[in-house]
């Protein structure tokens, strides 16, 4: 089992290890958004380089809308912002996990989570 890695500021390996590999997803980074308290998966969205940087700088979630082909500040219209409290890249650096404190539902339908269409298993 891999251990958590702690990096020192200015460490070149740390910078390389903590840089997402946007090339693997043709410039997009799948991002899993989880409630930091309940650990419930709220949504999956995509980030490009700019939305990733805006998220890190602002502490609020920004995404890239594949359908509208534009930046999307989560909650800008609805008021349902997401405050980022933790961010982690997976082992391949091509998927991002964000733990957030949500201010309202994550789904555009008004549901708390986008994952409410349960598939019954046999």
Please identify which CATH superfamily of the domain at 18-102 we are dealing with.
Answer: Phosphoribosyl-AMP cyclohydrolase
CATH architecture of the domain at 18-102: Roll
Please name the CATH topology of the domain at 18-102: Ubiquitin-like (UB roll)
Mean pLDDT: 90
Q: Largest beta sheet, briefly? A: 4 strands, mixed
The coarse overall form would be globular
Radius of gyration: 15 Å
Q: Tell me the number of strands.
A: 6
Report how far apart the termini are. Answer: 32 Å
Oligomerization state: single chain
Low-confidence stretches: none
CATH domain class of the domain at 18-102:
Alpha Beta
| Biggest β-sheet: strands ordered side by side in the sheet | 2-1-6-5
Descriptive overview:
Keywords: Amino-acid biosynthesis, Cytoplasm, Histidine biosynthesis, Hydrolase, Magnesium, Metal-binding, Zinc. InterPro entries: PRA-CH, PRib_AMP_CycHydrolase_dom, PRib_AMP_CycHydrolase_sf. With 122 residues, this protein is α+β, with helices and mostly antiparallel strands. It has a domain at 18-102: Phosphoribosyl-AMP cyclohydrolase (Ubiquitin-like (UB roll), Roll). Helix content is 13%, strand content 30%. The chain has a 4-stranded mixed β-sheet with strand order 2-1-6-5, covered by helices on one side. Strands 3-4 form a two-stranded antiparallel ribbon. A hairpin with a 5-residue loop joins β1 and β2 (41-47). The termini are far apart.
